[in-house]
Specification:
322 residues; alpha/beta; 8-stranded mixed beta sheet; globular
Length: 322
């Protein structure tokens, strides 16, 4: 019997004895909702949850507008990785640098393109992938960066080898931020990646789940622990160990943290701990006084873009010295 089968039997036995089994249905339902693409109509390039969040709706409208206004620069692109065909859009402005932008869970490449403006103004082409099981990309399970960071490494190589960009920078939001951290701490990271910007970076996905459950007024035990077990079995990942908190000390590239003091999913104190532990000799932390998780730019567009452009300017200056 495989190891996961033994774990499942042990978990079922524990549930039967303890009476916790009645909550497993809730945990499985939550897992399917957040990690499984159950239909091609789910997590498309359109707004993932129209009407559910006013800030999110406005962010998506702005992204769609930017995408449409720059449609003449778009090239539909795709790669193969981990047995999946992965799709994306490449905005070719004729530069020799590229920003790879990755948004959070449930969002496709159109939403990611809404963060492009400071990069274009700074002389970067823009590559916005559809993460696996999002948009036009294949895949069933979202693994919160565990497998996605390998996809990101493949996109980085594609941006350099195929699209002819001599330098690459990363911009990640929420899960995209965690994925970017996992990528830049990989031994397979190419040396032409110059830096990364992370918005709403969390210490671990386990912590995000805890905060989401608590913010809805529910008790975390035992559903949170059951969710962890289901992810361990179905996705093969331990989110307590495979986490930005355990990787951040290994980040050596220049990194810009952008975080909102109002973030209730990725708590501000957690971001401060990540920044303090970050191993990069060139790290910056920019606080925004308002803005919900993943929606900071909506409230602080000018400050946000200025922070990114100033960071890129330092990267370019360092590159010229090299």
């Amino acid at each position: 019997m495989p190891v996961w089968g033994k774990i499942l039997i042990a978990a079922a036995a524990f549930a039967a004895v303890s009476g916790i089994g009645m909550t497993f249905y809730i945990a499985i339902t939550v897992f399917r909702r957040i990690c499984v693409r159950t239909s091609a109509d789910l997590w498309t390039r359109g707004n993932s949850e129209p009407g559910a969040n006013a800030d999110h709706d406005e962010m998506h409208e702005l992204a769609e507008k930017w995408n449409a206004e720059h449609s003449r620069y778009i090239r539909e692109v795709s790669i193969q990785n981990d047995g999946l065909k992965l799709a994306g859009q490449y905005f070719d402005f004729g530069f020799d640098r590229c920003a790879v932008i990755l948004a959070g869970r449930t969002e496709g490449c159109v939403y990611s393109s809404g963060f492009s403006e400071p990069y274009v103004q700074s002389g970067y082409n823009v590559l916005v992938p559809d993460s696996r099981c999002h948009g036009l990309s294949e895949g069933k399970y979202l693994t919160m960066g565990y497998r996605e960071h390998l996809d990101l490494l493949a996109w980085i190589k594609f941006a350099h080898d195929v699209l002819s960009n001599r330098e690459v920078v990363l911009h990640g939001v929420c899960v995209g931020a965690a994925t970017s951290v996992f990528a830049v701490t990989s031994p397979d990271l190419p040396d032409y990646v110059r830096g990364l910007t992370v918005e709403g970076l969390y210490e671990s996905f386990y912590d995000v789940l805890r905060q989401r459950i608590k913010s809805r007024g529910h008790k975390t035990f035992p559903v949170l622990q059951e969710l962890w077990l289901i992810c361990r079995i179905k996705l093969g990942v331990n989110y307590c160990r495979f986490s930005p908190a355990n990787r951040i000390a290994s980040v050596k590239l220049p990194i810009l943290f952008i975080h909102s003091r109002e973030d209730i999913s990725s708590l501000p104190e957690g971001c401060q701990r990540l920044f303090n532990a970050c191993g990069s000799p060139k790290k910056q932390l920019v606080w925004m006084d308002s803005g919900s998780h993943s929606h900071i730019r909506l409230r602080h567009r000018e400050e946000y873009d200025e922070a990114v452009m100033a960071f890129l300017k330092t990267l370019q200056a360092s590159s010229e010295i090299m």
